[in-house]
Amino acid sequence: MPELPEVQALVAFLRERTDGLVVTGVELGSISVLKTFTPPPDALVGAPVDGVERHGKFIDLDCGGTHLVFHLARAGWLRWSDVVPTTVLRPGKSPIALRVRFDDGSGFDLTEAGTKKRLAAYVVHDPASVPGIASLGPDPMAESFTLERFAAIAATHRMQVKGMLRDQSVIAGVGNAYSDEVLHVAKLSPFAIAARLDDAEVERLYTALRGTLASAVATASGRPAKELKDAKRAGMRVHGRTGELCPECGDVVREVSFADSSLQYCATCQTAGKPLADRRTSRFLK
């Protein structure tokens, strides 16, 4: 799943390539991808791209005051083409969920792999009308996201810190991968309770959050969309590296599996050498 750094890179990528362009077509390859009915997708046709912004993990194309907003979810991606095929997109015939064409012949496809179709697109006059955007918490890369603000957030959440970092209504943009990375840098158990962290732990977590995301944004910056997934994987310290050696201490990277996801951590760095039980019903180490 693309998270804040990759989404920010996609926004920058689209800003550069759509500057001065006009939308000439919007085609649906999946009826279910579009979550709004008014205005229709054709309202985008003939409109210039006035800007591209990020809201958490949402990408927002402002086309003359009508916005195409989309969320790539777990298996979605953006595929750019300097020359888009002239054939009309047929619903249900390919992994392409939505295609946007521009007046210079270029455009992009939103694709989604797998059977669980969660990629979502919205055509709206106001991005704040998209439910997922309206409920977003603060952006961790914003100047206003200070240590004091983060400490206040942590103090009011009696939930596991891994879950707090991933909750989009608490902090916008962080998902499963970067929450693993942040917690490894901060040397905290993913199952520590946020409200029980002491001042030093909160500051360490805040510094790790901002630093990890800033580094990932810098790594992704300037890369074409097709390279972002591989760049993300290559930059991971523990996430997705079960069985490999921790780059900090040399211990083995361990995993806790859930029904549809998993997390990775280093016991030496994060849980005082004690492995976390890999069962959903276990009493996890706090």
TrEMBL record:
Boundaries of every FPG-type domain copy: 237-271
Keyword Translocase (UniProt): no
Gene3D superfamilies in the cross-refs: 1.10.8.50, MutM-like, N-terminal
InterPro entries noted in UniProt: FPG_cat, FPG_N, H2TH_FPG, Ribosomal_uS13-like_H2TH, Znf_DNA_glyclase/AP_lyase, Znf_FPG/IleRS
Keywords: DNA damage, DNA repair, DNA-binding, Glycosidase, Hydrolase, Lyase, Metal-binding, Multifunctional enzyme, Zinc, Zinc-finger
CDD domains: BaFpgNei_N_1 (cd08973)
Taxonomy, superkingdom: Bacteria
Pfam families attached to this UniProt entry: Fapy_DNA_glyco, H2TH, zf-FPG_IleRS
Cofactor: Zn(2+)
Residue ranges of every copy of the Formamidopyrimidine-DNA glycosylase catalytic domain listed in the record: 2-109
Keyword Zinc: yes
Reaction catalysis annotation: Hydrolysis of DNA containing ring-opened 7-methylguanine residues, releasing 2,6-diamino-4-hydroxy-5-(N-methyl)formamidopyrimidine
Family: Belongs to the FPG family.
Name recorded for this polypeptide: Fpg/Nei family DNA glycosylase
